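re: ur question from the group chat, yeah i did fold both. here u go
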Amino acid sequence: HMLKSQKPHIGIFGRRNIGKSSFINALTGQEIAIVSPQAGTTTDPVRKTMEIFGIGPVVMTDTAGIDDVGELGKKRVARTLAAMDTVDLGIILISHNDYGDHERQVAIELARRGTPCLVVHNKADLQPLDASARELITAETKTEIADFSSQRPDNLEEILSLLKKHLPASAYQKPSILGDLVKPGDLVVLCMPIDAEAPEGRIILPQVQAVRDCLDNNCIAAVLQVQELAGFLARCSIAPRLVVTDSQAFRAVSAAVPPGVALTSFSILFARLKGDFERFMKGTPHISSLRDGDRVLILESCTHHVVKDDIGREKIPRWLSEHTGKGLKFDVVAGTDAPPQPITEYSLVVQCGGCMLTAKQVRMRLRTAIEGGVPVTNYGMAIAYCMGIYERAIAPFAGGNSDFTRLI
């Protein structure tokens, strides 16, 4: 697996030598994928960013043939299937009016992931799509099919229009992080501890995005460190509409913020933005049900230099152990690697904020745990629970928001 950029991803799937590389080259207008008459030239997913009018930049992913053979071929097919976890739209490429078991399997796998697809009949210069094949494929896939020639891409605009039509708006229209919690002119206080995990000379991505979201919503953003909070609130004549803190500072910030002021964390905001928030709210209280010997999986979504007292590897395991008083076992998985144990062996899964991933990839990351009945939670929600302020931290969202939920 590769970490997914936050641009929408479109995956090209099809058999060997079906013209996937030529198709992606025709779409991007660049020779970014190797083209060869020899079947199986593409061995790993190849990614290229292109601009689609009305959407913006998207990542096109050229994958290995779904009909590859042999032991190495099986590994290539496995990587192609794994790439489905990162795509927001799948294109099933066929030619010569041939739609069979390989293509059906792709359609089934995309549907299992809730990923829309469309079918493109390539090499139309050699054999156009006939009416009977169009009717059969449309009836079976419940989607559209377009004729196309990578050698003579006369209807390229039609293909791009179909991509825009079928790509979910949620993949490129980002919901506001806190727009339903504030109104123009509100004061939002952002507590950002500068500690060992803060990058030198910078602030981390969720904090940057929260500041920008405050500005987009015409709010007043007050950015400060935790030790400045009490003094700022005492001097400030405007009551904050919302205080957002780093999860690790929950306890100190909660003590300083008056009970009537809404309080949450960056991690919880991103859990709502990118994770399955309802599942997180149901899963978090399972912390109290953990028993001696239970195994907990910590999911970091990006690889980073591990510092002393790292939040995922040291602090959260320590806080969970102290809160429960149980002898727990912990596995930490960085990036998008598979866990060392089958997911059903775990009693709890704790997902990070996922700031480097899209909502689609975070949800795919958690899918097997949810399907296996394993409770899931989030860094910030788990920390708040361990610190005894969970109810306060999720109170701003307890009522839900239909517009927000529909968009994500």
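okk and heres the other one u asked abt
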Amino acid sequence: MTEPLDLAGLETLGRRLGRSLPPGAVVWLEGELGAGKTTLARALAAGRGAREAATSPTFTLAHRYDTGRGPIYHLDCYRFRRPDEAGALDWEAILRGDLVLIEWPERGGAWVPAPDLRITLTHLDDPDRRAVRLVPSEVVAP
């Protein structure tokens, strides 16, 4: 599914998905720099009931947000120079979370778990809109 969304539409989509994803879901957030991955992660976390607004984990690599359902883990693999750097993360704890959001998953190599939902954001000619493609796990190749 691909649909162009403005910022408000992206936030609405994220909140709706945050409420509807099953416990333990892994979501890959893909797209170029500035495509809206962190904006969408913030909306997903808010829809899930995060007690604080999600921020970019680019420099810290991972953020944890508490909810009444369990923790949300928001990871950003952008700064990894090699996939084996992802091994420094506590994947055992992360995968016990209620929701796992991963930006730049391809940079984490085999350490990154397969997604239940893959979301790709693409810039459009209109700088205020993004194309959004949702691919559920049954379509994602292992």
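fwiw on the second one: The chain has a mean pLDDT of 89. The longest strand covers residues 129-136. idk if thats what u expected
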